[in-house]
Amino acid sequence: MNISNLLKVAWDAILRNKTRTLLTILGVVIGIASVIAMVSIGQSSSQSITEQVSSMGTNMIMVMRANQRRGGVSMGSDNSQSLTISDAERIKNEAKFISYVSPSVSASGQIVNGNNNALGSLQGGSVDLLKIRKFELAAGTNFTDDDVNKYSKVCVIGQTVVKNIFPEDSANVINVVGKDIKFKGIPLKIIGVLESKGSNSMGQDQDDIMIAPYTTVQKRFLGNDYLQMIYCSASSEEVADQAVAEVALLLRENHKLLDYQDDDFEVRTQAEMLSMMNSMTGTLTTLLAAIASISLIVGGIGIMNIMYVTVTERTKEIGLRMAIGARGKDILMQFLIESAILSLIGGIIGIILGLILSYVGTSLMNMPFVVSYTAIAVSFVVCAATGVFFGWYPAKKAANMDPITALRYE
Amino acid sequence: MNEKTTNDGSVVNNNEAIIRIEDLKRDFIVGSETVHALRGVTFDIKRGEFVAIMGTSGSGKSTMLNILGCLDKPTSGHYYIDGVDAAICSKDQLADIRNKKIGFVFQSYNLLPRTTSIEQVELPLLYNSSINAKERRERAEHALELVGMANRANHTPNQMSGGQQQRIAIARAIVNDPVILLADEATGNLDTRTSYEIMSLFQKLNEQGVTIGFVTHEPDIALFTKRQVMLRDGKIMKDNLVETQSAQAALDALPASSDY
Ligand SMILES: Nc1ncnc2c1ncn2[C@@H]1O[C@H](COP(=O)(O)OP(=O)(O)OP(=O)(O)O)[C@@H](O)[C@H]1O
Ligand SMILES: [Mg+2]
Predict the structure, then answer these.
(1) pLDDT in tens, B75-123
(2) What is the ipTM of this complex?
(3) Which helix (DSSP H) or strand (DSSP E) does residue A213 occupy?
(4) Which of B27, B59, B75, B233 is the pocket-test mutation for ligand 1 (most atoms within 8 Å of CB)?
């Protein structure tokens, strides 16, 4: 029997049993749809992380205070005071692979203007902080070195702060430039408004930000001159690794650490963060896909189940086909093709459903919609394989029937 | 005109035996016992014959017909169909013989559910790769015409009476132009009138040259054939020619009251 006739025979049988067809493909539809949805959502979240991180600047290097452990007891990073302004200056003056440096401190408190208020934090940095963190100004200006030296009461605010504190100006942010805003009771003059960046992969609103000279934050809000972090920018992505090594060396020197002493700081690059986050989402995606595959296996067993019942139910038909000249191989192929077609139809519907689900899911979660062609291709192959694998046993049973016994079957 | 060209193109003599069985035995082993269903049967069927295979229940009629139809193999002996010894054929070769040389009609019609008549009749040709879709359709239409069911081509079995279903089954059996048409109790499920109609159809096909082997245990049905082979206990008891009656005449003679 040639292949087109086999297809016709199998297809006719599928059309003759519409209810069975629907029930059989249902399991596969659910299995494939969940695999596609899980993989797509996983991939889209990792893509959104990548986008966020690179929007933050892939050249960015963060120097943080190390968690100092004394006698096995973590002192917590807030207690350590190992980063100072001299560290930042040393990096700025001596590091060859670093183009921008900004100390970083922050204070949290109430932001108030008239009746509007919100809880927020004030970030302190140098004039280079905006460049390092890739913030653009939508209106007004950045503060100057002079503002840093004089710890001026000025600030640059993000769009969310405008929305919350100056709701009437949110359509026209230029209006807030020049106005005063109170942070922890102290009025700061708004000199600039940042362009919107949206929320990052962790769901954090990057526009809920207020930036002032670090000296202002230190002197007026914190009352000390330690740094929480130092932001640097490598002169290019290629030299990021060298820049990290250089920064570490300078800091060890500045902190007068002896050879046997561990670093009392940590240097992190965005690339590291990226790969860390990606491996996290990767693990999650794999886990979800693995769970989803279980439903695919259940769907496959459903096919086997129904095909098995079908073979018994259609024993007489098998006998008749044999009596009019079907070989065992023809019967085997017919049932295999039937189950392969069933699972392929299920697969196609499942893929469409999975894509719809992941589209809805990603747009609800504010993530880019990624079509995973690999997942689609793999599902397709898995589907056909499922059909053949789980159809094999029932088909073999059909093919091995004795025609006379099959014809007599009631 | 004593010659005819067969499917495979060979020219054969009209009086040649197209079926020859020699000392055919078939034993069934049931548990520790052996049932001798056929105990050495020898006979020929010639082209154009219409043979009734008769006998009481359990005499081996179906067993014999299954072997003739290449659905079963004898325990010993020879079975030549169209010159080929089916007793030594492989399963696949037997399937090919069934597909190209044999037409089967069953007591319970054995039509596929939810399938139109034309598709039922096309079915055997689907298993023959040398026949394309167009030829398949034409031959199926022709077969439906021969059994008088051309107007039912798109009907499914549940839309037809038993007699009509059996006609479709007969069309399916002759669509491959078989060497022999085998029927096992083909009228067993039908009332008298419909049985006669079917017998009349068989007679018509036989007149057109179809060789028929026909199992029945009803003597009045056997009267419509040309020859009776009587089996008892797996052996031939009697093998004689019949004074053939016309099924159409019998049909006409039926009283109108038997219609209900
Ligand atoms: N598959 C089988 N296994 C065991 N014994 C069988 C088998 N098939 C047939 N027989 C036996 O062979 C003998 C002949 O059976 P067969 O079916 O040929 O009879 P039959 O003449 O067709 O009878 P009926 O008119 O009732 O159909 C019986 O004794 C039956 O029990
Ligand atoms: Mg019988």
Answers:
(1) 999 999 998 999 889 999 999 999 999 999 999 999 999 999 999 999 9
(2) 0.91
(3) strand A210-213
(4) B59
